[in-house]
Amino acid sequence: MEQNKDRLSIDAARLYYESDMSQQKIADELGISRPSVSRLLQYAKEQGYVQISIIDPTELGLSLASELRQLYHLKTVKIANAPLDHAREIRKALGQKAAEYLHEIVKDHDIIGVGWGSALYEMAQDLQAKPVKDVQVVQLKGGSSYSKVNTYAHEIVTLMANAFATTGTFLPLPVMFDNTEVKRLVEQDKYVKHILDTGKKANIAIVTVGPASDESILFHLGYYIGERDRELLSQKAAGDLCSHFYDDEGHIVDKELDDRTVGIRLDELAQKETRILVAGGKEKLRAIHAALKAGYMNTLITDQYTALALKRMNTISA
Prior knowledge:
The chain is α/β, with parallel strands linked by helices. 49% of the residues lie in helices and 12% in strands.
């Protein structure tokens, strides 16, 4: 009799938990009453035939964030829960999480240096107003382009400045000149020098990374990047940070190309008190890993899929 009860309770549990049947449907299927089904399900749990575990994504995120902090020696890690491992959903989740974090940490007299890109644009759109005094928002690199591809450089600075009741400071230059002589000449202009100096003084930097493949937006903005440069980048670059291409150890890959790039240098970025990387997705994984390993950033905002992939990369290389 006890064996029959065990078998019946397991059958009822399978239909209820695995086949998603209602208790009444199970009762009809097994030829018993609905209260009997309820008692059988309770019996199955008491005997250990059914074990229910609750997966709290918040707890998993906290644990994963703690691991990444230790692996990369970071100050802060925030993990956004994207509903799908898809670029658009990841960008939206990153934007919301980054907006929450930036709103939380910004205080009176901060200077916020910002890059550009779609994830940062999502953040800027989600940023809530905060009544702070004497905050400055400045562009860390040139944002003008020769194509119709939108970098969102102007929109990001404008939205952030509005949120913090200030006026944004734009760097109205391309991020890359055709030659170093023109770049150096432009940087000597008093107005341009003031903007670049303000970016260097920023105590908060919030940026993203790009891949070194054809998916990089830098290859589609109309800047001159010759065949030799492209070949070198494809062979050695892990990604770009503030439009500076670096390898897996964080070293600049193409000095000639780098000398033509307008904006904050990576060694200057690494000196910031708070330097936030907002990035996620398979195509950016190598770039994120290399930038964090090199110590350029001390705060990471990413999604759960990228966070798990970063953890695996460190496990494999250990």
